[in-house]
Amino acid sequence: MDHALNKVIELRESGFQFLHLRDDAGQLDRIMAFKQRRGFIDSILFWSETEARAGRLPAVRDSARPAQAVWIYEGPLVEAVDRLLDLPEPGSRNAPTLMKATASDLAVVTTLPFKLKLPPGAIA
User: In which domain of life is the source organism classified (predicted)?
Assistant: First the structure.
């Protein structure tokens, strides 16, 4: 647990902002961290230290279509944070640019600010 907590602290120190997403009962359901970088949003959504989803999405998108990521990873929190922080800066050589995966649950940050109220099990 300490290693996972250190990775969350590393995200915060790297400039990521956090949202605590709650269920209808007000209980913490998952946490999202996000950071805008040169026309893209890097984000990570995690439920526990063993379940996380990280991705890079365009900051501007067609709201009539599902959000698509140029990079996405699902797995343990520690590895997801490491991979997200190791991504090349957008626009640099070897940075991912091609849309390839649907990532609607990572796209909540593109619709901020608003009050987020989701039913249990809903995808943000």
Answer: Bacteria
Q: Are the C-beta atoms of residues 45 and 31 closer than 8 Å to each other?
A: yes
Q: Which of 93, 99, 90 is nearest to 70 (CA)?
A: 99
Neighbours of 94 (CB within 10 A): 8
Spatial distance between the Cα atoms of 80 and 91, rounded to a whole number of angstroms = 21
φ/ψ of 29, rounded to 5, equals -105, -45
pLDDT tens for residues 66-108? 677 888 899 999 999 999 999 999 888 888 877 765 665 565 5
